[in-house]
Amino acid sequence: MAEDESWEQLLTRANAGDGQALARFLRAVSPSIRTILRARGGALPPDQHEDVLQEVLLAIHLKRQSWTPGAPVRPWVHAIARYKLIDACRRRGAAIHLPIEPFAEMLADPHQATPLAGRDAEHLLAQIDPRSAALVRAVALEEETAAEAGGALGLSAGAARVALHRALKRLAQIAKG
After folding, report:
1. CA distance 151 to 159
2. 155 assigned to some structural domain
3. Average pLDDT, stretch 140-150?
4. Where are the alpha helices (DSSP H) in the chain?
5. Which pTM was predicted?
6. Is 107 domain-assigned?
């Protein structure tokens, strides 16, 4: 708590125009910011932590007037550090890469159809007219274009798209009911 109070006093004096208080404040908060960067910045190489630290200190300097006197300083500093760290990770495109082998047995095969999905689709398609059902099957299930599916049914490409839209709308209404 004493550290928070001294940070508060230093920042109050810095906001009043005391340049030495600002320099002491920035030196005082640097170890705490480094701790945050080490703890949460695992996605960044350690050599970039100092760059992020400099960004945080610059942001504190530029935005120090946004701190509300009397409010705790530590959460304000930590929030700035967190957001600057997030920005650095986004710029770098940091992502966590895990090997998939340990999870391979738990993951579903994306190419394997869900057994009930086919039955449910056929149940819904049986409730609309045969031409619309054939059109939906061709476009949605067999991945044909609307023009190809319409040509097989004797429809123009535009008429096939309109009929497909109407059929999908009817299926959505049936599924809701």
Report:
1. 10
2. yes
3. 87
4. 2-15, 19-40, 46-63, 73-92, 115-125, 130-136, 146-152, 157-176
5. 0.50
6. no
